[in-house]
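The passage that follows is intended for readers who have already worked through the single-chain material. We present the inputs for a multi-component assembly, then the predicted structure in tokenized form, and finally a short commentary. You are encouraged to pause after the input and sketch how you expect the pieces to fit together before reading on.
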Amino acid sequence: MTVGRFGRFGGRYVPEALIPALDQLDEVRAKAMIDPEFLGELDRLHRTYTGRPSIITEVPRFAAHAGGARVILKREDLNHTGSHKINNVLAQALLTKRMGKRRIIAETGAGQHGVATATAAALMGLDCTVYMGKVDTQRQALNVARMRILGAEVVAVEHGSQTLKDAINEALRDWVTNVHDTHYCIGTVTGPHPFPEMVRDFHRIIGVEARAQVLDLTGRLPDAVIACVGGGSNAMGIFHRFIDDAGVRLIGVEAGGDGIETGRHAARFASAEPGVLHGAMSYLMQDDDGQTLESHSVSAGLDYPSVGPEHSFLKEIGRAEYLHATDDATMEAFRLLCRTEGIIPALESAHALAGAIEVGTALGPDALLLVNLSGRGDKDMHTAAAWFGLVDDGAGV
Amino acid sequence: MTTPPPVTPSPSATPPLADTAMPSPAAPVPTSGPGAESAAVPNAVPNAVPNAVPNAVPNAVPGSVPGALAAAGRGVADVLSRCRDEGRAALIGYLPVGFPDLDTSLAAMETMVANGCDIIEVGIPYSDPVMDGPAVQRAAATALAAGSRVGDVFTATAAVRAAGAPALVMTYWNLVLRRGVDRFADDLAAAGGAGLITPDLIPDEAADWIAASDRTGLDRVFLVAPSSTPERLAAVTSACRGFVYATAVMGVTGARATVGDAAYDLVRRTRAVTALPVCVGLGVSTGDQAAQVGSFADGVIVGSALVSTLFDTDRDEGLERLAALTRELAAGVREGRKG
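Having made your guess, compare it with the prediction:
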């Protein structure tokens, strides 16, 4: 009877009140994915609004610090709104209109998904509310202003750890109350079925484009595809087209925070066991009783105690492997890409760059690495400035 | 104040009502009209028939504790049946174990039983209670901060049982998964618990729990909502045992000014597909509302309003406020079908 499983992961662990809405969404998106009108409209939006296809950029000066391996970046940071998140949001906004709903809600950690959702809502004339942990509204104050200027209501969530997990709790409470006219635009490949599968499908274009672009540029497939993994949407997006390419390693990089040994991290695969959170069975940071543990990361977008269920499945069957990068290693990779290539990455994406340094160093100069640069780092300058001491005292950043 | 009772259930702690011969819990309410036929839809058959067996013949279940099983398997249906005979709805009161601390929470549950709660819904505090509004969230956070552990729930079910009421545990699913579904069921049955209410577990995902509850004779209460389609109502109710939990409104727990038409309509639609008792929760906070809901439901479930009596007060005053509200609600369910 259970639907939406990746092996033993996934499922629908939600209140019964939401089941009809999930069934409706599942039906509408299944029809849409084979409807030329829907696909044509999404394609038109991606070409004329998102800026797809996003380019790839080879980064030799950065690669010199990664064992001399050849490193190619997939530039999702160049999309409108500054990250891969827009791929999924535009599609879900179209579905919202197809379902006859007038309001869209979202959770956000770093603010990328919230900004993308506010953008799509403005474009399509939908009401929009974004839930954001209070800690994150402070870390990402500029993104709060961006969402508000786009017309969205931003709610600072003050429960629990006041981060992404608590923003999702509050969004779910809104949804169960207002589901008759409201769509919950989940921003990553987690949540109850059909979200993990649907959000993956909307990001799959990343890997479809990148695979063709890398073949075109180099004449061969990469040895490894590397992406950061919070919930894991950018990673599933770039991984999925490569799953059948047995020779291509799929490498996810989780947030190592202060280090696994400190307990202050978000490296689910390094420490956790399966459990249920926010509607899905997946690896989950939890205590002996099953209470959710708080995660920690310098990057708000990776600061989440669970992970998309398809990642748990890929991990369990051995198709994907998962590393983690500490805050220190991540900030060093962040600085390195800025200095060597003139590209300021999002802190989330900098975890993938740290992973690339580790993998490239192990594989050496013959290796070809494809790294998903999932977002740009403008939003993170406050954190970077404080980390590196880049602002003079009293400058008011 | 009340002394906490012993945590180990003994035969003498089991009230005599558990020994009363009972009809099969799969069909405790004699109904007429469409419900009687509709209960026999194909969905109902695979669950309803085998489920009835371990309850009706508790001693036939191997490896179980007869006393605990009798208490666990028949308590809820028995109480609801007795309330129906009295021409009223049952009052079902919710409180999270460990709030504001373990000892006070046990005393509070005993207070609710002593003042007219027919069934106690023992909540387990959880870090991410997505079905709960501000009052229960606050109580859960307070309990967890005070060191509440999942295992405390078994102390509470034993205490409630000893106080003379069935104890149903309301819990988010990960807490059961983490302990292990079978181990949780065994521990709950051994502690005199009646079963589980599972707000974030739908029957579609509940194969392990359905098997474990069949094995142990525990009740399993799933939720239906105003948004539920007739197909979902049939599927969900056919997996229930004890009663069906109808959420009165779309939303989370918490007191509301009106409970109204959606609840009535949902109860009506639910009765069309099941013979099980239908109890209504979400939003009831006063005696008048309890009377209103009790006029058409088999049970009135009250949570946030009871929890809120224990906020911002000392223990004695809090328990007095709790007792007073419980009495008001108990009077309400007795007024509901008069006139």
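Commentary: Residues 38 and 273 of chain B are 5 Å apart (CA to CA). The radius of gyration of chain B is 18 Å. How closely did your sketch match?
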